Amino acid sequence: MAQIPKEKEIEDLRDCFNLYDKQHNGRILCSDLITVMRSLGASPTLRELKLHLQELKKGKTDYLDFSQFLKIWQKQMSKENITNEITEALKLTDDSNKGLIAASELRRILMNTGEKLSHKEVDQIFRAANVRNNGYIKYKDFVTMVTIPIPDY
């Protein structure tokens, strides 16, 4: 079951939605849905978006209002679990199945895949996670630490 977004999250979703409401009529083009969702941090596939739109009997040239967008957002977010996805990806490097990854290997991954991080950014993450450059890291603990939401003060 999808978690109901908090008021602040709904406000953020609406702000982003409004950026793509080119006619300022409370609707976005369905073809903009993937851009809006990805700019908000979701990672739906084209197939998933097609299924979401089919449920609403919408095509790429149709429009979505905010309530329809919010339903799609909630459904998509109930499917995504970034912590598990990252953990499973790192598990692929764990040939011994001990739950560990070499710091050097994690550094290489962070600097060469996805949103490539700089050497300085990786150093900052390692300092925050208390990771030694020559050691091993329990990747489940590391993923939990880096995916903890930042407090909203």
TrEMBL record:
InterPro entries: CALM/Myosin/TropC-like (IPR050230), EF-hand-dom_pair (IPR011992), EF_hand_dom (IPR002048). CDD domains: EFh. SMART domains: EFh. Residues 8-43 form the EF-hand domain. This is EF-hand domain-containing protein. It comes from Clavelina lepadiformis (Light-bulb sea squirt).
